[in-house]
């Protein structure tokens, strides 16, 4: 689970940790949250993402080394070549 300690609420009940090269490269390509068995995808040691080849918009939250939110991108549409986390590490 992923919790927001400041607001005392749950962000994700069943996160998926993309570990390993193949899972990180694939990410959400060809997947839909409506049919997925997870409600968040986590990329550790990651300072930027892309939404190339994706079929739906996502919300992206970048977390810094102290587990604080450094940037939020809401309703990020498909086909962005790069989105930087500005201080984010996950």
Describe the structure.
This protein has a two-stranded antiparallel sheet. Strands 3-4 form a two-stranded parallel sheet. The protein has a two-stranded antiparallel sheet with strand order 5-8. It has 90 residues and is mainly β. The two termini are 15 Å apart. The chain has one helix spanning 21-26; strands spanning 2-4, 9-12, 15-17, 40-42, 48-49, 58-63, 69-76, 83-84. It is 7% helix and 34% strand. The longest helix is centred in the N-terminal third of the chain and has 6 residues, at 21-26. The model has no long low-confidence stretch (mean pLDDT 91).
Query: Order of helices and strands, N to C?
Result: EEEHEEEEE
Give the C-alpha Rg: 13 Å
What portion of residues is helical? under 10%
Strand order of the largest sheet: 1-2
Strand coverage percent: 25-35%
Mean pLDDT across every amino acid position = 91
Structural class: mainly beta
How many beta-strand segments?
Answer: 8
Q: Total helix count?
A: 1
Alpha-carbon distance between the termini? Answer: 15 Å
- Sheet bearing the most strands, described? 2 strands, antiparallel
The low-confidence runs, each spanning 5 or more residues with pLDDT under 50, are none
Shape: globular
């Amino acid at each position: 689970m992923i919790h927001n300690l400041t607001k005392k609420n749950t962000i994700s009940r069943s996160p998926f940790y993309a570990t390993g090269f193949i899972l990180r490269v694939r990410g959400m390509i060809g997947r839909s949250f409506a049919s997925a068995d997870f409600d968040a995808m986590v990329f550790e040691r990651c300072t930027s993402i892309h939404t190339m080849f994706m079929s739906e918009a996502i919300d992206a939250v970048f977390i810094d080394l102290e587990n604080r939110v450094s940037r939020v991108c809401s309703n990020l549409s498909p086909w962005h070549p790069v989105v930087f986390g500005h201080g984010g590490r996950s």
